[in-house]
Amino acid sequence: MELVKYILGRLGRSLISLFLVLVIVFLLMRLLPVETYYGDRTDRLTDETKQAILKDLGLDQPIHIQLWNYLKDLAHFDLGESITYYAGKPVWSIMAPKIGYSLRFGAASLAISLVLGISLGILMVRTKGKLPDALGNAFILFINAVPSAVYYLFIQFAGTKLLNIGMLYKEGDISTWILPVISMSLGSIASYAMWTRRYMMDQINSDYVKLARAKGLTDKQIMVKHVLRNAFAPMAQNLPSSIIFTISGSLYIESLYSIPGTGGLLVKAIQAQDNPLVQMLVMFYAVLSVVGMLLGDLAMMACDPRITFTKKGGSR
Amino acid sequence: MEQKNRNENEVILSVKDLVVKFSLRGQELTALRGVSMELYKGESLAIVGESGSGKSVFCKSFIGMLDKNGWVESGEIWYNGTDIAKYKKDEDWIKIRGKEIAIVFQDPMTSLNPLQTVGTQIREALELHQGLKGVAAQEKAIEILSDVGILEPEKRVKDYPHQFSGGMRQRVVIAIAIACNPKILICDEPTTALDVTIQAQILELLKQLQHKYNLTIIYITHDLGVVANVADRVAVMYAGDIVEIGTCEEVFETPKHPYTWALLSSLPQLGIKGEPLYSIEGTPPNLFTEIRGDAFAPRNRYAMQIDLLERPPYFEVSPTHKARTWLLDPRAPKVEPPNTSIAKAMESHQKHAAANTKKISDEKLVEVKDLVVQFGSNRNPFVAVKGVSFDIYKGETFGLVGESGSGKTTIGRAIIRINPAARGEIRFKGERISGKIQKELDHKITQQIQMIFQDPMASLNERAKVDYIVSEGLMNIHPEMSKEERDKRVAQALRDVGLLPEFASRFPHEFSGGQRQRIGVARSLIMEPEFIIADEPISALDVSIRAQVLNLLSAMQQQRGLTYLFISHDLSVMRFIADRIAVIHKGVIVELADTEELFAYPLHPYTRALLSAIPQPDPKSEKHKVLEVYDPSIHNYTVDKPSWVEIRPKHYITCNKHELEQYQETLARAGKEG
Amino acid sequence: MSNVMKKMNNMSDEELFRFIEFDSSRAESTAYSGYSYWKSTFKVFMSKRSTRLILYFLIAILLFTFVQPYLPGQKSPTEIFINPETGRQYRSLQPNSEFWFGTNTIGQDLWSRIWSGTRTTMLIAVIAVASSTIIGIIIGAIWGYVRVLDRLFTEIYNVINNVPTTVLRMLITYIMKPSVGTLIFAMCLTNWVGMAKWIRNLIIIIRDREYNLASRCLGTPTRRVIVKNLLPQIVSVVMLDIALSIPGVIGSEVFLTYIGLGLPVETPSLGNLIDEGRRVMMNLSQTYQLVFPAIVVAAITVSFYALGNKFADASDPRNHV
User: Fold this and answer.
1) How far, in Å, CA of C209 to CA of A111, rounded?
2) Is C163–A160 a contact, with Cβ atoms under 8 angstroms apart?
3) Radius of gyration of chain A (CA)
4) At CB < 8 A and 24+ separation, what contacts does C103-109 make?
5) Are A274 and A266 in contact (CB under 8 A)?
6) Mutate to test the interface with B, among C6, C15, C17, C209 (most CBs of B within 10 A)
7) Are A280 and A117 in contact (CB under 8 A)?
8) How far is residue B77's CA from residue B93's CA, in Å, rounded to a whole number?
9) What residues does each domain of chain A span?
10) In which band, very low, low, confident or very high, does the pLDDT at C306 lie, cut at 50, 70 and 90?
11) Which of A222-231, B320-329, C218-227 has the highest mean pLDDT?
12) Which B residues 74-133 touch A at CB under 8 Å?
């Protein structure tokens, strides 16, 4: 009962902040000069047609009415229509077919990076101060420091030139999956490895691990029975967000490899100055983020018995 | 009686010339300087020492759990016919850890895995060392939980550590140690993190378990009261060496090493009110520097030329008692040891008590009326202080005693306005200082009320030099003061607290706990306050340092006519320093009386429980004392509401009508007997 | 030791067993080390040879970036060079003695463009990170120290935090006209939030430490408590955050340029150079146009990141002797 009450309250807070995000994004988009709403043929339009376009989009009305209309539409799941990218097509129908692509690529890279990242972290802990740890640290340093936009290019270049893999994604050609999935995974591998290592080190230095050693457990038993699970608990909070963002598609990689997913769509929409589409996509990411944080809180609760829903948790 | 389990002949563990070193940033420090000791089967040995004396390192070396940067340089540890000091690998140590020697750590809050039920953690040890699995392990776990005094063990076995209080968690940690079925149990400061009443219960429990499970127990502690309570034999450690070892009676009644003398006679229990405590000056040596001769020599009032040149050997006093001091050499001059017997101290105490009771004016300096302090939101408040009233008279030391969570610190902080009062009022020299007040008054009381904090490590800004720390208040109340004048006052304040003026240009980092606490006192005194709130000012300090700070506080009171609110959990310190004592429990003052009155006629069951729980550094009384346990549910306040009653002149108590009658009967009986 | 033995042998028992006068200064002596937090931090930081090398390397690169235009024989980064013999532009010329890093597709000198681009990008990064750090510290300090504001600020943070940083930066640069100012604004607007949250968490941890309560008891005004007690504690975290933010901002500039929201092509920046290089990278004879700017980006970002980590280690008092 307490759990349900907590989740409902938490959900309510998420909805409120989501609403605020919607309003702010909407208002920000209105800051754009109206010219950007005429589509690609600005110079060939007469003033009358321009007025007609504005009227059609409802942009001739005062801002609060626009906002009200927009929210009303949203309530009916009417997200507006694309104006340049797929002129006249409802944005939702542009987006829907793309989700599947992002999902598949994301899932593949997620599986790889979780397995490799956590294993690398464990390996580094076990060889602390020795060569594998040093190499792992160098890898994490490199991946975190160098802009992904730079090393992605080299992966694309090397893969294309050395391995003769097609540069762009081709439907049905599995080899074209390799490069984007590697690119997508590297960053997550580095961050999973870094957090695994850090949290495990924290646990290893804790008193209860000392007590477990004094009990007569071997280092291996301590790792398996105590350290790993406890190190995972603090990671649980960030995991859902990072999963959601992995599977919702990488903005850059999808565009770089022409993968027809949702990530590349935002880049295209911006390049095409398609305001309603941009607005809708920003909302989409905000929703994902809100859901991710909500799931993160719940996951942490599931992992750690100390986190309770009410004030009076511990008894004496 | 005390030696019921002890078999004089059977040595279970023997240590010879153990040297342990650590490397710290390229520097080598010697933590143990050739320690030898024998442990007898079935006994309780207490190892006493201050922080840095090496007592913890010593015991950790028995189970191969020195920190990674430490190693056994030389020496032997014989157990079961094997020299375990030679063990290098974890595979070897696994045979010792848990199975033969188990350990209980100091802090029960962090010793348990937070994500596993206590049952799982006990079963883990059972599986490992007793080969029990499944239902059998679960049943055994429940049995052990019940042995360590956990009620409803069938239910609690499924609970997580955070669902237990500190004392209960320590019981669980002990249960895990017991589940290993060890021969030797090392208890590393097992009760330091706990309240006194809980401490007494845990010590009692350990004694029972020792009997039931045939354990040999090593207690590591800094608290001589605990030693007197539990130990058959005592080893006193100083700077990485055992300087004196003997039976409990021998060490307490006829100590031979000047360090043991100093430790015992600096206890406030042995002090005479109004006179300075015996104190050991200075601080323990830094283990980085090579120690020549007797390590205690620089602080020893009986140091001889030879102490600076050569390390003393052990001189045997009796077959069971030996000490490392040149004073026992036949060539040494005879020295009359200071009084270290608590019984003698009590005698002279009572003689002096009447004479030394100081005359307290009837001018009220601080008035607290129906004070309520709460935390958290208004909808879901946590009430820390539930309507307390008391007055503090000019020139007195008003003691506030209670355990953690009693609200004693909150009251102090409410007076100095760190915590706002939710209801009630606080007056200082007749003026209201709680709630919103005028700027000038605020300025005035900032200068006149000062606070001394508990933890000298946390109460000084690490990034500022001592002169900023000490002069911080001056800058606020005298912004117009010149730099030279400020510097002069800082130098004077440092001198007043017994520190050198040139310390002003140093950072707090390089001072010891006692010196840092004196810097904290200097910071308050420089404001020239009239009223000082001292919040547990000595509880974080080493035993040998406490007397320095207590003496300083008393001296300042005499010189400057200061008034103190002295907050502590330790009634024995209170008896030495306080004129009147208020006992607080769960945000309510349950009893308030003059110090000697309170000790002579403790009435409230909580006061009595506290008094009985405090370990006294006197093995005779301590070993036979009867614990009184306070159970708040004995008060039935549903119909008959409690009120604040003056039961004897200036002796107040919280009780209802029914209880008042009982207390009066008790008093009448005591009167007849006395 | 032998000295001591001699001394002992020279003394009679009577002398040896005579009491010496008690000297309280000997008991009170501390091992005076002249310890200062910042001195030790600096010493530990500089004690590793690898750290020193990275530091000098970074300083050298940054200095060179600003000095380069005034050195003799440097070309203009925007001039299109024309082959006087053929009258055509020097397009995509491989590195040679005239054009050290070669030329780009329209015949501009890549060497001078790289340094000019580094200048622009570093300017954006430094100004954006500096201003967002200042904003972050001020907001974070107030957020953490003034209890009544905590709720409000946290809610605001949650709202902002709901939009992923990359998306927010894209949105802002999309709405505004592309320029150096826009980029700085966009980076700053998204960067301070994380900084403020960091500072707030730290301040909440340290604000109730006893030395801060002591300052309150002494009547120290809030401003001085923040400046003297709190900020010195968080400087190391701030330094780390600055060092890690700079690579982030540089990466963001590269990414935004790729989407078409970066600086106009006339302004060389590392983002522009990388994007130009990307267009021709698959042509092996022109790959150098990507490689050179990429090396500079990698060298600068890795250096900042590594130094940030090393400084964080050095500033931990546990690592001081």
Assistant:
1) 44
2) no
3) 24
4) C104/C276, C104/C289, C105/C276, C105/C279, C105/C280, C105/C286, C105/C289, C106/C80, C107/C80, C107/C81, C107/C82, C108/C77, C108/C78, C108/C79, C108/C80, C108/C81, C109/C75, C109/C76, C109/C77, C109/C79, C109/C81
5) no
6) C17
7) no
8) 13
9) 99-303
10) very high
11) B320-329
12) 90-91, 94, 96-99, 102-103, 105, 107, 110-116, 124-125, 128-129
With a CB-CB cutoff of 8 Å, which residues 42-101 of chain C face chain B?
none
Domain range annotation of chain B: 258-351, 352-380+392-594
Chains that touch C (3 or more CB pairs under 8 A): A, B
CB B113 within 8 A of CB A213: no
Residues in chain B with CB shorter than 8 Å from the CB of A208 are: 110-114
As a whole number of angstroms, the distance between CA C102 and CA C98 comes to 8
Domain span at residue C268 reads: 39-72+113-319
Closest Cβ–Cβ partner in C251, C287, C309 for A147: C251
- Other CB atoms closer than 10 Å to residue A15's CB: what's the count? 11
| Torsion region of B324: left, alpha or beta (phi above 0 gives left; psi -120 to 50 gives alpha) | beta
The residues facing B368 across adjacent strands are: B390, B426
Number of residues that make up chain A: 316
Number of domains composing chain C: 1
Contact call for residues B244 and B324 (beta carbons, < 8 A): yes
DSSP track, B488-543: HHHHHHHHHTT--GGGGGS-GGGS-HHHHHHHHHHHHHTT--SEEEEESTTTTS-H
DSSP assignment of A223-263 equals IIIIIHHHHHHHHHTTHHHHHHHHHT--HHHHHHTT--SHH
Distance from CA of B27 to the nearest CA of C (A): 9
Check CB contact under 8 Å for A142 and C174: no
pLDDT in tens, C107-127: 788 888 999 999 999 999 999
CB A236 within 8 A of CB C225: no
CATH number at residue C119: 1.10.3720.10
Decide yes or no: CATH 1.10.3720.10 for domain A99-303.
Answer: yes
Dump pLDDT digits (tens) for B276-319. Answer: 888 787 777 777 777 888 888 888 888 888 888 889 999 999 99
In this predicted structure, the answer to whether residue A309 has a pLDDT above a threshold of 70 is no
Yes or no: say if B194 and B166 are a contact pair by the CB < 8 Å rule: yes
What lies within 8 Å, CB to CB, of A56 at 6+ separation is none
Residue A300: CB atoms within 10 A of its CB come to: 18
Q: Tens digit of pLDDT for each residue in C125-170?
A: 999 999 999 999 999 988 888 878 888 888 888 888 877 788 888 8
- What are the phi and psi torsion angles at A50 (to 5°)? -60, -50
Nearest beta carbon to residue C301 from set A21, A25, A145 = A145
Banded pLDDT at B634 (limits 50, 70, 90): confident
Amino acid letter at B659? E
Bridge pairing between strands B315-318 and B321-323 = antiparallel
Give the CA radius of gyration of chain C: 29
CA atoms of A154 and C293, how far apart (whole Å): 12
Q: In chain C, what residues touch A285 (CB-CB under 8 Å)?
A: 163-164, 167
Measured CA to CA, the distance from residue A306 to residue B438 in angstroms comes to: 45
Contacts with B332 (C-beta within 8 Å, 6 or more apart), sequence order: B304, B326, C17
Would you call B111 and A207 a contact, using CB atoms and an 8 Å cutoff? yes
**Which of 124-183 (C) contact A at CB < 8 A?**
155, 158-159, 161-164, 166-167, 170-172, 174-175
Question: In DSSP terms, which residues pair with B233 in a beta bridge?
Answer: B45, B247
Instruction: Give domain status of residue C232, yes or no.
Output: yes
Q: What is the pLDDT of residue C146?
A: 82
C32 contacts B446? CB cut-off 8 A: no
In terms of CATH, what superfamily is B352-380+392-594? P-loop containing nucleotide triphosphate hydrolases (3.40.50.300)
